[in-house]
Amino acid sequence: MKQEERIRKMEGLLDTALEAVSEMSAAMGKYAEAQDAISTLDGYYGSREWKQDCEADESGKLPATLKRGILSQDGIWNMLADVRELNDAIVRMAEKLK
């Protein structure tokens, strides 16, 4: 590989790496900030309060305009499953980087 070609290639690799590092850093910061919310949602799901809220929804006691995806078993269950998978992936990646 000629010198100029090598330098262009390495510049491209540097650009790719810088973009990936920047995006990952921002995503990790946002994910770290969301941990309290995730923990709160985990405690709410299946709790007495959640069951009461679901019953109120099923009885038509909640306003039709109230967003209530949190009362869907699939929505919160899937999010919590995604969190577990993501945490496992983070651990696997960290082990590879050691």
Helices and strands in order, then pairings?
Elements lengths: L2 H31 L1 H10 L3 H11 L14 H25 L1
How would you state the average pLDDT, rounded? 95
Largest sheet entry: none
Uncertain runs? none
> Helical segment tally?
4
Q: What percent strand?
A: under 5%
Structural category: mainly alpha
Notes on the protein architecture:
Helix content is 79%, strand content 0%. The protein is mainly α and 98 residues long. It has four helices and no strands. It has helices spanning 3-33, 35-44, 48-58, 73-97.
Short description:
By secondary structure, the protein is mainly α. The chain is 79% helix and 0% strand.
Short key terms for the protein model shown above:
98 residues; mainly alpha; 4 helices; elongated
